[in-house]
Predict the 3D structure of the following.
Amino acid sequence: MEVPLGTLEVWEYLGMRASGAPPLTISTSSDYYTHGPEHRFDTVLFVEKEGFAPLFNAVHLAQRYDLAIMSTKGMSVTASRMLLDRLSERGLKRILVLHDFDVSGFSIFGTLGRSGRRYRFTNEVPLIDLGLRLAQVEEMDLESEPVAVKEEEWEKRTATLTRHGATAAEIDFLRNRRVEINAMTSRQLVDFIEAQLALHNVEKVIPGDDVLARHARHLIEQDLAREAFDQLRAEFTKQARNAVLPEDLRDRLRAELDAHPEGSWDGALAAVVARMNE
């Protein structure tokens, strides 16, 4: 499931609660019907940049670790903060934040769970900084790129970095350089994320015994319903083949379309057939 991080879309998503199985339907799906984290995920991977979805989909990252993956362009929008706030209220254990090693990356992590003028948090948001940090950059020998910062701007940037937890060595590095997540190869990025997931004990989500029992009974109900329907299918087919159709079927269809010209022929035919049994 993919949810755009706009305010209306987030409000709609948050209004949906885990409701278990719907009323009985003949379905081939074995899914437990959920919206939100309950019984589905307890970890969010927040990635500063967009564009990694094809890679993550290719390695089934979200599915293998039961992750919700979020990304925004630049600084987090109000809707994304609200989403994290509400998910934290609903049992989210951790929000893992992956960002560039630069001033903006530190600011994104530092402000993601912090109340501000536009949004105030009502819950403790469990943020964890995955990096990139200087030690990781050096360990992977990632390529940096130059950054031109005017002297009069550097004092302000130094204060920002310090406020968001950068070390003296990191601040010195970032004086005229930066390293993007994109400096990692696809293999490096996946390996890095998976190592961090293991470090922070991210595992598959398995619901409690009551949910398991309820859904197991629903699956049995579905199997019984399909079996019963298969037994009736032959009789239904026989009755349909032997049904007597009116000789003026085409005329009735034409009259229905004349009365409702905005409809399609098959929709009109369904209306005609429904009235045959009245």
